[in-house]
Structures are given as C-alpha cells and as structure tokens.
Write a structure and sequence with these properties.
Length: about 350
C-alpha cells in the first residue's frame, strides 16, 4: 500500500505514521516529493491487516492498495481455466452450459412439469429453489421444507442435478442430501459466515455477484470460499442496481470480461434477473456469451404468467425452446473461441 500524506504533514506526523505502519507489520519507506510525502508500505496486503484505517489520520490524504485482496482465484496464481463438474454438466469447459429452472418451486406438479421439459430440452442441471430471498419479506418465500421433499421425488424420477440457493446455515444442512450445488444469491454475496458454512461442505458453489458489489469484492468473496476449503466455485454476474429502472438490473458485461481475465474460475451470466423482462433474456444472453461467459442461468416456468415470483422474466416452455435454438450459433462461436484461446496458450 501507498500512503499519501497531506502537503502540511510535519516530520512528527511522518514519524508517527511510520510507527503505525511498523506496528501493523509493514516496512515503511519514506519518499519526500516536492508537495507530498509518500510512505510506501512493504508487506503482504493479502494476509496482513489492512492499512485502510490510517486514512482517518488528519495528516493522511489517501491510502492506495497495490496488491489485490485475492490470490487463489487469480489467473496469475492458476493460469488455466478451472472446470467445475456438477453431475453431467461441466461448467467452464469447452462448451458453454445452460442451467435453467423456475424462480421457485411452487408445487410438485409445477416443478415436475418444469424439470420434465428441461430434461427433454437436454439440460442436466436445474434450478431447484425451495428457499427464496425476496425484495419484500411479505412476498412468497418458497415452500421451504415441503419444497425440499418435492426435490427428492423429482430427482429420483428424472435423475437431474440441482442448484439451490441457501439463505442461512440451516438450509445448507437441509439441502445436503438433495442438492448438487449451493447458490449464494446476490443478497448474501458478502455474508462471510454463510460462505464459511457452505465452503465447509466441499460441494460446488455458484456465487452470484452482489447487486452493489465491485468486481474486487465479488472475487474476494470467491477467494474466501477457496480459503475455507471449497475449490469448485463458479461466479455469476446477475446485474447491478442502477439509476435506470427501464431494466430490473444493469447486466455488467464488462465485469464478465474482466472476471474471465482476472480469474481462472468459470463465469456465468444470469440474463433473467438482470433483464427482469422475458423479451430481453435472449439479447442479454448473446451479449454475455460474446463477452466470454462460460454459460447462462435462465429462469423457465411452465406457466410464467401465474408464477408466484418473477412472473415477468420467466420463459414459458415454448419460448425457452426457441431461445435455446437461437442461442445455438452463439454457443458454437463461444466454443470455437475457447478452443482457439486454448490452442494459443
Ligand atoms: C435467484 O437466482 O433465484 C435469485 C434470487 O437471484 P439473485 O440472487 O441474483 O437476485
Ligand atoms: Mn427469480
């Protein structure tokens, strides 16, 4: 880190700051410029205390980090792409994958119909959401344990793999025998207690980006999963809260490209929660693949108009099939580009 002092900083201020830096286990190097004095702090920013608190000292103008707060997820540390296998679905492999399913499990009939349709469409990894985080606590929060029972029956019937969101440590336990991948949703993206609990199970994790998280914060949360023992982490960009309510969230296509460059972990995109409107799902999915996404998470429901949640963005079965067909050339292009990149490295 570099600490930039204010122009009026005295020799006493400089000494006091150097002492504080030493007490936090960094070596200070004092550089006196024409206007500003700068204290370069040598030490491991990843494992040491942060020097951010020094920003509050009256003589300090700015504290600038040099190192990222993550290492295990970075491409410098692990140059080749990580592939996360969930049942029959490889995420981050040679071809982009599609994960789909309803926003929530609403009944045995609804979920059976949804999974039957998706397996006929060739999908093996399905969204199975018995617990729902909602914008308002008074909205439908899922069938909870009844939904978990439905999952068990549907899994036995169709032999599919599931990705399920957990909202707290109790859900991690309840879902352990039936889900194949835990989802940490946008609202829990920085819930480090929950990340620790999930990581300890050693199952694949789909980590969504918080709706106001920076790319650095998203990757640092992924790092925390790796540090706590989970090596099968998949990132998912799902759009940011923005000023413009024309779309539900602003799909950050640059973050997809950036995360692919900065990290070896697979990166998916969720155009459904970004768009909030079914007509935008296809164009956003194409944009995400063009930016380098390893696959897509799409909400599909047998009867979206009557869905208990996210009715406007879920695709009915016929539209889902059309979207999948329209995506095929984009998927093929993404796969060809991946092969080309792999050959040139
Ligand atoms: C979801 O995938 O069901 C969901 C709630 O998404 P997000 O956390 O991105 O809002
Ligand atoms: Mn939803």
């Amino acid at each position: 880190m570099i600490i930039v002092l204010k122009p009026h900083a005295s020799d006493q201020d400089v000494q006091m700051i150097a002492d504080r830096v030493r007490s936090l286990r960094y070596q200070p190097r004092i550089i006196r410029g024409v206007e500003h004095t700068v204290v370069a702090c040598i030490g491991d920013e990843l494992n040491n205390h942060s020097l951010e608190a020094l920003r509050n000292l009256p003589a300090v103008d700015n504290v600038i980090p040099i190192q990222h707060r993550y290492k295990l997820v970075s491409r410098e540390y692990h140059p080749t792409d990580t592939v996360v296998q969930v049942g029959q679905t490889a995420i981050g492999g040679d071809t982009p994958c599609v994960i789909a399913g309803p926003c929530a499990i609403e009944s045995a009939e609804q979920f059976r119909t949804a999974v039957g349709h998706l397996t006929r469409a060739g999908l093996h990894l399905v969204r199975a959401m018995p617990y729902k985080p909602r914008t308002s606590p008074y909205d439908f929060q899922g069938l909870r344990e009844d939904g978990v029972r439905i999952m068990r029956d549907v899994k036995a019937e169709f032999g599919v793999s599931f990705v399920s969101e957990v909202l707290g440590p109790a859900h991690v336990e309840t879902l352990a025998d039936v889900t194949d991948m835990y989802q940490i949703g946008a609202r829990n993206a920085q819930n480090y207690d929950l990340l620790e609990t999930v990581a300890a199970v050693r199952k694949p994790v789909l980590l969504k980006r918080g709706m106001a998280s920076t790319v650095e914060e998203w990757l640092t949360a992924a790092e925390y999963l790796l540090v706590n023992g989970c090596s099968q982490v998949v990132l998912c960009e799902r759009g940011l809260r923005s000023f413009d309510r024309a779309v539900r969230n602003l799909l950050d296509v640059s973050a997809i490209a950036l995360a692919k460059q900065a990290s070896h972990l697979p990166v998916l995109a969720d155009p459904s929660h970004a768009a909030g409107k079914r007509a935008l799902v296809l164009p956003l999915a194409c944009a995400a693949l063009a930016a380098g996404a390893d696959g897509l998470v799409i909400e599909a429901h047998p009867d979206p108009v009557n869905a208990f949640s996210d009715a406007a963005q879920q695709l009915d079965s016929a539209t889902f099939d059309t979207v999948l067909a329209e995506l095929a050339p984009w998927m093929a292009l993404a796969a060809a580009r991946k092969r080309q990149q792999a050959a040139s490295t």
